[in-house]
């Protein structure tokens, strides 16, 4: 590979499968079934890689354009954690190429019609804490392999059309009397159709209003506005307490907490809460 035919190419793939390719060459480069366009959609800055398990460090930046990476999609979170690969490639013979980076997009900042995204290498997950946490509350996520609750159950999931939206975070739905107020708090909302299809959010409050339907409040807006008539799916929430696991989900056998641990006050001064006899 010579410097006269050297260029960079990078592909970025969203969770929904949409894949884009870009290059810093002045013509389109094609390999691996993808076309890498000489577009302003994205450029990559100098790459820093460690020889050990340190986190790779780099940034990607570019202009927000209607036919590539749009501000609307970034705000909606459609590019969050997107998979990114970068090659050094001989544009005269694309078969002669070398993969120099593989990872995902991290934190994304937007300003004045452009974006800047942190690139996180494959070693990034190694920074996560490992092992179990000894705590009275459950360490599993509702519905995961440790919890084993079937979220497809009719009591835990429901689909309804949005009747009205207020302040982008409060949704009015029809009544569903089989579920008491608060049933979906700490749960999730997923949009099934409309402009925000595929986006989801965490539920802050679930209020049953007598004669006025149900009000669901999200912790933050979705990025793409919901419309009246859009269909959403609500999934029940869990506060990680042993009592909730037993009474709400009938799943205490799979509880992953330690509800009988003594309190911090007892650990600091055991004689205050125990028998002295």
Automatic annotation (TrEMBL):
It comes from Paracoccus spongiarum. Residues 182-265 form the Bacteriophage phiJL001 Gp84 C-terminal domain. This is DUF2163 domain-containing protein. It holds the Pfam family Phage_phiJL001_Gp84_N.
